[in-house]
């Protein structure tokens, strides 16, 4: 893998861990990534965002990272899962697909990689919301199939990778964010 490729990671939490607020957990978890071989190039501010789907739980603290590493996409995902587990995340989530969590580290993109292939990514991008709530891919999908729909991902990503261009949709993070409804963007508030 080309070490100069940008790796985009969205992070969030909405449940305390061992009595610590989600933002404390996030800072500690992010601090562990360099020891795992993931260099943090840039980190967004923290944002308070409504739980997704709205009303399903406490508000989240979200943000985004632009990183670099020589690791493969699958290795990066494994690192993220390992760090999540250290901070109380269990897989699969017994409480449901979008249940509250002590830590969520989502691999959004690795350079211009499309995994496993354009057709599969396209199917996940076009998945109806009713299926999104119950289905999860069994393999790594890159870029993340919901990036274009989520203000809580795009607003922080604009701070660290506004120019990154989605290899299938052909639009930059800034362009995807500009397409979101203003109401959705207004609910993503910097801490």
UniProtKB/TrEMBL annotation:
<keyword id="KW-0418">Kinase</keyword>
<comment type="function">
    <text>Catalyzes the transfer of pyrophosphate from adenosine triphosphate (ATP) to 6-hydroxymethyl-7,8-dihydropterin, an enzymatic step in folate biosynthesis pathway.</text>
</comment>
<keyword id="KW-0289">Folate biosynthesis</keyword>
<dbReference type="GO" id="GO:0005524">
    <property type="term" value="F:ATP binding"/>
</dbReference>
<keyword id="KW-0547">Nucleotide-binding</keyword>
<protein>
    <recommendedName>
        <fullName>2-amino-4-hydroxy-6-hydroxymethyldihydropteridine pyrophosphokinase</fullName>
        <ecNumber>2.7.6.3</ecNumber>
    </recommendedName>
</protein>
<dbReference type="GO" id="GO:0046656">
    <property type="term" value="P:folic acid biosynthetic process"/>
</dbReference>
<comment type="pathway">
    <text>Cofactor biosynthesis; tetrahydrofolate biosynthesis; 2-amino-4-hydroxy-6-hydroxymethyl-7,8-dihydropteridine diphosphate from 7,8-dihydroneopterin triphosphate: step 4/4.</text>
</comment>
<dbReference type="GO" id="GO:0003848">
    <property type="term" value="F:2-amino-4-hydroxy-6-hydroxymethyldihydropteridine diphosphokinase activity"/>
</dbReference>
<dbReference type="InterPro" id="IPR000550">
    <property type="entry name" value="Hppk"/>
</dbReference>
<dbReference type="InterPro" id="IPR035907">
    <property type="entry name" value="Hppk_sf"/>
</dbReference>
<dbReference type="Pfam" id="PF01288">
    <property type="entry name" value="HPPK"/>
</dbReference>
<dbReference type="GO" id="GO:0016301">
    <property type="term" value="F:kinase activity"/>
</dbReference>
<comment type="similarity">
    <text>Belongs to the HPPK family.</text>
</comment>
<keyword id="KW-0067">ATP-binding</keyword>
<feature type="domain" description="7,8-dihydro-6-hydroxymethylpterin-pyrophosphokinase">
    <location>
        <begin position="9"/>
        <end position="161"/>
    </location>
</feature>
<dbReference type="GO" id="GO:0046654">
    <property type="term" value="P:tetrahydrofolate biosynthetic process"/>
</dbReference>
<keyword id="KW-0808">Transferase</keyword>
